[in-house]
Amino acid sequence: MEYRIATISGDGIGPEIVTEAKKVLDRVGTVYGHTFHYEEVLMGGISIDTYGVPLTEEALETARNSDSVLLGAVGGNVGNSRWYDVAPNLRPEAGLLAIRKGLNLFANIRPAYLYDGLADACPLKKEIIGDGFDMVIVRELTGGLYFGERRTEEVNGVMQATDTLVYSENEIRRVAVKAFDIAMKRKKKVTSVDKANVLDSSRLWRKVVAEVAKDYPEVTVENMLVDNCAMQLVMNPGQFDVILTENMFGDILSDEASMITGSIGMLSSASLNEGKFGLYEPSHGSAPDIAGKGIANPIATILSAAMMLRFSFDLDKEADAIENAVRKVLADGYRTVDIMAEGMTKVGTAEMGNLICERI
Ligand code: NAD
Fold first, then answer.
1. Are 305 and 70 in contact (CB under 8 A)?
2. Which of 138, 209, 226 is nearest to 172 (CA)?
3. Which is the catalytic residue, given 26, 32, 146, 185?
4. Rounded CA gap, 99 and 220, in Å?
5. What is the pairing mode between strands 150-155 and 158-163?
6. 86, 145, 259, 290: which has the fewest Cβ within 10 Å?
7. Catalytic residue among 85, 116, 120, 227
């Protein structure tokens, strides 16, 4: 098959890690008989330097017309006055919000997986880690508290601020469907997280999730209150398969889940629209402190490319091949500087990409 991928290398380590992800995709193409066509799109600081804005309408259109988007990272040191002494909507990161909105990416997917060889980086005790954990957090990305009406005003001489949390049943349904679809490709368990003992929006959330669940009789569903979920993540992370939750709860829980894996250079993510289209990117930023040194860990981006194969192209076998190759490289003792440990072999960005390719 042929696929058209818009690549956004972006800033900092972005170009270095996207190069490695493309290398791995091309290796998959050779082995499994696919062709990936790439079209580079400028976004972030590089777009500001070239066009004066973090994302042009043409760039957005190119992304929209592709089969999916692979993003490195955007942004730089806030000390860079060329990019940051401007209005917030003209800064590099504004490109991210614009592209998510422009492509209607409402479901954010973040896996949190503990690799055998990296258990020492996990801040949890060994008895809690047990056999490890392998979960995916599905977070609603374009509704809820972050997008509701807000205002700050003086009422009877006292300052008062209001934020509004709104969810329609359609917004809940479409993200719930994504979570159940993903669960069907995994261990078939969805934990829907809400605060239904307090919030009306959560009670509607629970009701709609129960309706969607009827279409997935093979999937086990449980409801969990968000405060309990925050505790369970550090007490018994192995119990989770797919966690489904609204925007703000997901924002907090997905960061908590990433922290317990212990290594930001390993964490992939995807943002999906109603169909098969998605934007795939590492969870980390552009790491300006190590940009250009050839030492960045490309694995998060490479695993994001694997997610693209799985979610946008339904190439599960090929996605497995990448994920298994990453596991093998780690088991063989290779590490980039961010995950380096005693007795392991330190490698740079390109070498890590090559080692993964060799194992596909
Ligand atoms: P960061 O994730 O870029 O870096 C945090 C720390 O982790 C740094 O020490 C960095 O060297 C290290 N690190 C990150 N990724 C790594 C990798 N792949 N390999 C090895 N080490 C890695 O976060 P930050 O420093 O807070 O942000 C830097 C810039 O990135 C800012 O401009 C920020 O706005 C931007 N940012 C962009 C995105 C995105 O494009 N989606 C996300 C987060 C931050």
1. yes
2. 209
3. 146
4. 34
5. antiparallel
6. 86
7. 227
Residue 151 bridge partners (DSSP): 162
Going from the C-alpha of 224 to that of each of 55, 184, 243, 292, the distances in angstroms are: 39, 20, 10, 44
Residues 122 and 212: their CA atoms lie apart, in Å, by 35
Q: Quote the tokens at residue 261.
A: 């894996």
> Given the DSSP bridges, would you call strands 68-73 and 278-282 parallel, antiparallel or unpaired?
parallel
Q: Angle at which helices 14-32 and 349-358 pack, to 10 degrees?
A: 10
Based on the residue annotation, tell me whether 227 is a catalytic residue of this protein. yes
Residue 149 neighbours by CB distance under 10 Å: 8
The answer to whether 83 and 48 are in contact (CB under 8 A) is yes
For residues 263 and 250, what is the distance between their CA atoms, to the nearest angstrom? Answer: 19
pTM of the complete model: 0.91
Mutate which of 93, 271, 284 for ligand 1 pocket (most atoms within 8 A of beta carbon): 284
195 catalytic? Reply is yes
H/E element holding 344? none
- How is residue 184 written in tokens? 């069907």
Number of H helices, E strands in the chain: 13, 14
DSSP H or E stretch at residue 167 = none
Question: Any idea which of 77-91, 138-152, 173-187, 226-240 has the lowest mean pLDDT?
Answer: 77-91
Chain-wide mean pLDDT for the chain?
Answer: 95
Give the separation between CA 73 and CA 301, rounded to whole angstroms.
10
Spatial distance between the Cα atoms of 86 and 71, rounded to a whole number of angstroms: 24
**H-run or E-run covering 79:** none
Which residues does ligand 1 sit against, CB inside 6 Å?
Answer: 13, 73-76, 93, 96, 264-265, 281, 284-290, 296-297, 300, 338
Closest CA to 271 of 148, 19, 101, 145: 101
Find where tokens 């009422």 sit: 155
Q: How many CB atoms lie within 10 A of CB 148?
A: 15
Q: What percent of the chain has pLDDT over 90?
A: 87
Q: What is the DSSP letter of 190?
A: E
Q: Could you give the CA distance from residue 93 to residue 91 in angstroms, rounded to a whole number?
A: 6
